[in-house]
Amino acid sequence: MTHKPIRIGTRESQLAVWQAAAVQRLLAQHGHTSELVYIKSEGDTDLKTPLYEIGVQGIFTRSLDIALLNGQVDIAVHSMKDVPTMMAKGIVQAAVLPRASHADILVPGPGFTADRTEAPATIATSSIRRKTQWLHRYPADSIDNLRGNVNTRLAKVQESTWHGAIFAAAGLDRLDLRPEDSILLDWMLPAPAQGAIVVVCREEDTYCADACAGFNDAHTALCAAIERDLLRTLMGGCSTPISALAEIVNDTVILKANVLSVDGGSKIEIEKTAAIADARDLGSEAGAELLANGARQLLHRAV
Questions:
Q1: Which of 25, 186, 187, 258 is deepest in the core (most CB within 10 A)?
Q2: Prediction pTM value
Q3: Which of the following is catalytic: 82, 104, 205, 229?
Q4: What is the pLDDT of residues 165-221, one digit of tens each?
Q5: Can 278 be counted among the known catalytic residues?
Q6: Residue 160 domain-assigned?
């Protein structure tokens, strides 16, 4: 039985196309032909409003969801951290690729100084999560909004007077754009599923589901699911400062998570562990504990 090429839906940004092309190569390795179909998203057209002010989940995925449900594409490829924890009805997860770096990094700007005893710095980011964690550590600093694709944001940093801007390491690494002088923010917890790529398809499309199952990475899928379960339990999205990271060490899942107030002044954090076989509910359990420890009040203040 022959099949037409699998149509891969992707946003038009360089990073999104890189991710879709990575899936295309994996499909080819498993004997499937495919083609890329470019879809514009709301997140790509409004480049001025901070993401935490737009305040809607799925801003980078909704247009692709519509194209998928309309039959315009067969699968869609997303940065997993952009995908709402409740997927659109009729769409299911088909595969998660092995996770790249989960870390955030600081790209120094013209105003950069390594001496934190000098005047307060100005840092650029559109992420409320990064903003609050930075202000928790450096409360005297100020945060400017920075939107656009990776290349646009890197250019804006160099044209600015900022001390620096915060980027996901994975995005810069994938495009070979990570500056040599970038600084790893190893104290900053990432967004749930940061660094992971997910492929989705229509619920009834068993052909595409089977085609993608061959390159699903079980460990990344488990860790991302745990982080997203925590996010769902806290009912968070792009406009709430929630961070989570699950990692597997010696057959044990270690989950770290935190919730901060918008000004960065208050933080509630948690760390939980479980054997891989018993870890499926780790995220929802940690989320419930965070809520019991006062996270609900912080999140209400964040909305």
A1: 258
A2: 0.90
A3: 82
A4: 999 999 999 999 999 999 999 999 999 999 999 999 999 999 999 999 999 999 999
A5: no
A6: yes
